[in-house]
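Input structure tokens:
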């Protein structure tokens, strides 16, 4: 007797798992981590740059207009100040978590990739609680089958 069944089962209609999306998810995670690490260790934490940039009164710069002072502006300090404002009060992690929840609701892999990128950056930039949750939710959406594949599998 042949032990293999002759009638097709429901498992024969399931699509083969695609291993590539997991690798791309790790790519977005690594890219967010690398960019945030460069910003943190290259612009936010160096003591000399901090001392130089803390002497600038940013409210006056913004009131006069950044573009009117194009030639005299210290661009490293501008990028540093913007980076600090991005992670103050967990702004970056909150946006990452919102994008991850949106990706979970809409079942969109590209949104999960954005959330992985932002969540990894939030983890490096001092927002570990919301950043961790964003990475976990986005990773779950990233590795789960797309909504169209789930609908097709449920019809059979």
């Amino acid at each position: 007797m042949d032990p293999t069944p002759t009638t097709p089962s429901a498992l024969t209609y399931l699509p083969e798992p695609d291993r590539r999306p997991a690798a791309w998810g790790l790519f977005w995670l690594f890219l967010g981590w690398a960019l945030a690490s460069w910003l943190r260790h290259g612009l936010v934490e160096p003591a000399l740059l901090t001392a130089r940039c803390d002497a600038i009164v940013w409210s006056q710069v913004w009131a006069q207009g950044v573009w009117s002072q194009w030639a005299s502006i210290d661009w490293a300090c501008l990028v540093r100040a913007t980076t600090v404002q991005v992670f103050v009060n967990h702004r970056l992690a909150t946006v990452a978590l919102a994008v991850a929840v949106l990706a979970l609701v809409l079942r969109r892999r590209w949104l999960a990739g954005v959330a992985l990128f932002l969540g990894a950056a939030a983890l490096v930039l001092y927002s570990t609680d919301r950043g961790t949750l964003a990475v976990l939710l986005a990773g779950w959406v990233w590795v789960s089958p797309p909504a169209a594949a789930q609908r097709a599998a449920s019809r059979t």
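The radius of gyration is 23 Å. Residues 36 and 121 are 5 Å apart (CA to CA).
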